[in-house]
TrEMBL record:
Organism field: Eubacterium ventriosum ATCC 27560
Gene3D superfamilies: Glycoside hydrolase family 3 C-terminal domain
InterPro entries associated with the record: Cellulose_deg_GH3, Glyco_hydro_3_C, Glyco_hydro_3_C_sf
Membership in a protein family: Belongs to the glycosyl hydrolase 3 family.
Entry superkingdom: Bacteria
Sample GO molecular function, one term: hydrolase activity, hydrolyzing O-glycosyl compounds
Keywords: Hydrolase
GO biological process: carbohydrate metabolic process
Residue span(s) of domain Glycoside hydrolase family 3 C-terminal: 9-57
Name by which UniProt lists this protein: Glycoside hydrolase family 3 C-terminal domain-containing protein
């Protein structure tokens, strides 16, 4: 999130709560965590890259190169 390093914010941003796909109760869950009622734990299903270069999507990954057999 390059905008966090923007000089206009002058280091005032200490954290970002990037919440989405929480479903109907996602908002309530966020409030519970931010208010201290619940302790956040678990694993995230998604990874958010800071830079596009950090994402490996689009690179060419081949399984193996096989040689074609000649007919006898």
């Amino acid at each position: 999130m390059k905008w966090m390093n923007d000089s206009r914010f002058n280091g005032k941003i200490k954290a970002v709560a990037y919440v989405w796909s929480g479903g109907m109760e996602g908002g309530n869950a966020v409030v519970d965590v931010l208010s201290g009622k619940e302790t956040p734990s678990g694993k995230l299903p998604d990874t958010i890259a800071e830079n596009l270069e950090d994402v490996l999507a689009g690179i060419k990954v081949k399984y193996m190169q096989f040689k074609k057999l000649k007919k006898k």
